Amino acid sequence: MMLNGRNAVVTGGGSGLGRATAQVLAERGAAVAVWDINATGAQETADAIKSAGHTAVAVACDASDPTQIAAAVDRTRTELGPVTILVNNAGITTYSPFTDLTEDVWDRMIRINLKGPFLVTKALITDMLAAGHGRIINISSSSAQTGAPALAHYAASKGGVIGFTKALAIEFAAKGITVNNVPPGFVDTPLLRQGFDPGKVDKVAATMPMKRAGLPEEIAHAVAYLASDEAAYVTGQTLSVNGGRYLV
Asked: Within 10 A of 115 (CB to CB), how many other CB atoms are there?
């Protein structure tokens, strides 16, 4: 499942799932633009990729801001060329009981987690249409599949990502562009640990069918498959990587 000659953008590539995904895509031969609102994190990921002998560029970008997205697209095309692999990974998680959930918190969640992928995809899909080839992989969440307390805003945003994936898959199926999504389930990342008290991650992981949390690399390899030519006939799909947490 090599990706030689392909250029990829990974949003939120400065840490966690995004970093692992950027590294795995680069190992498979793709040149990777690491986009992240945290410029330091993006540079660390890009440096790690280059240290391993692969090609990467760090791009500081808020992937929910149209002006910053336009600048990031210009720099990516200048540094690497047209983009035919997009991983919409950037996102946030916050916890709030529904009765305490404010409109501002709801709107911020939707803006970053759902509007962001819309804006980035809109900005880059022209490259894929011109090439007659493209792979879009959206990172959703198992919380959108199962529901979760204190996460109505998050589950709604990620459920929107799943619907967005299916709609684009149908619209662009005849154009050589596939669109799929991966909903991680309880993967041990810095973002996950921000929402849990110390020690609770291991306790929750023990309740999972596999009795452990997932690893970022396990999500990354699923993304790499969907980005590959081997997945050319796979579109509109939800590839759940969750250790058995949710079964379809």
From this structure: 17
